[in-house]
Write a structure and sequence with these properties.
Elements (H helix, E strand, L loop, with lengths): L5 H11 L14 H10 L5 E5 L5 E6 L5 H13 L3
Antiparallel strand pairs: 1-2
């Protein structure tokens, strides 16, 4: 299940940062996703920004996701070589 509030916003990040950001919504109810959620320290779901290599650069758990902070973090990350 994908949080109804987060799904369109996350999908919109690709449009806001064309060619720089790939967004993906994941079904949090699958066994693989549940394992990842636990490993990330989330209770139910959240937002994760990863580098192209898969390194976690930013995470916001559960219903504490702040898309304004996420956008600001992306702007800063995209200024720096990764």
């Amino acid at each position: 299940m994908v949080c109804a509030k987060l799904k369109p916003a996350v999908s919109g990040l690709e449009q806001e940062f064309p060619g720089q950001v790939k967004a993906r919504n994941v079904d949090a109810s699958t066994p693989e996703a549940k394992k990842a959620i636990q490993e990330l320290g989330f209770k139910t779901h959240g937002l994760v920004i990863r580098s192209a290599e898969g390194k976690v650069l930013l995470k916001q758990p559960d219903h504490t996701v702040d898309l304004d902070k996420t956008r600001a973090a992306l702007v800063e990350m995209l200024k720096q070589p990764m």
